[in-house]
Amino acid sequence: MALDSAKKQEIIAKYGRKEGDTGSSEVQIALLTQRISELTEHLKTFKKDHSSRLGLLKLVGQRRRLMKYFKKTNKEAYLNLIESLNIRDNI
C-alpha cells in the first residue's frame, strides 16, 4: 500500500519548505494523509482485512501526534495545512 514515487515527489514538491524537503511536519502529515486515504478506500472494498485496519489505525495515530506537535509550534501554518488537505482540526 505504499505510495508510488511520482505521487510522493508531487506531494513533497507541493508541501515542502524547500527543494528536497522530506522531513518537515507539513510533508510528513501530507504523505500520511495520502496513505490514510488510500487505505480507507482499500478497506471499503476488503472489509475483513484486519491487518490493514491495524496499519491504518497506527498511521492515524502517527499523523495525530505530528499534527499536535505542528499545531503547538506553528499554528498559522497548521491551519493552512489542514485546510489544504481537507482534514478536521480535532487536536
Automatic annotation (TrEMBL):
Gene Ontology cellular component terms for the protein in this record: cytosolic small ribosomal subunit
Transmembrane region(s): none
Magnesium as UniProt keyword: no
Superkingdom, taxonomy of origin: Bacteria
Pfam families cross-referenced by the UniProt entry: Ribosomal_S15
Record flagged with keyword rRNA-binding: yes
Annotated GO biological process: translation
InterPro entries, sorted: Ribosomal_uS15, Ribosomal_uS15_bac-type, uS15_NS1_RNA-bd_sf
Gene Ontology terms, MF aspect: rRNA binding; structural constituent of ribosome
Keywords for this protein: Ribonucleoprotein, Ribosomal protein, RNA-binding, rRNA-binding
Family to which this protein belongs: Belongs to the universal ribosomal protein uS15 family.
Function: One of the primary rRNA binding proteins, it binds directly to 16S rRNA where it helps nucleate assembly of the platform of the 30S subunit by binding and bridging several RNA helices of the 16S rRNA.
Subunit and interaction comment: Part of the 30S ribosomal subunit. Forms a bridge to the 50S subunit in the 70S ribosome, contacting the 23S rRNA.
Name of the protein this chain belongs to: Small ribosomal subunit protein uS15
Organism: Sulfurimonas lithotrophica
Gene coding for it: rpsO
